[in-house]
Amino acid sequence: MNTLIIDKIRRLKGEPVKPISTEGIIILDDDQAENALNFELAKIDEFQRKVKEMSDQCD
C-alpha cells in the first residue's frame, strides 16, 4: 500500500514511476465492475446463509 501512495505522489509531482504491467489483466468499465461486485457479494450472502443454516441445525 505504501508503494501505491509513493507512486501517486511521484505522479502528482511529475516524477517518473516504475511501469505497471497490465499483461493478463482485464480492466473493467464501471458497469462491469459493479456487476462483478454484485456477483461476489451475492456469493458471500449465500455462504453466510449456509453457515447460519448449519449453525441453526447444530443448536
Automatic annotation (TrEMBL):
Superkingdom field: Bacteria
Q: State the name under which the record lists this protein.
A: Uncharacterized protein
| The species this protein was found in | Solobacterium moorei F0204
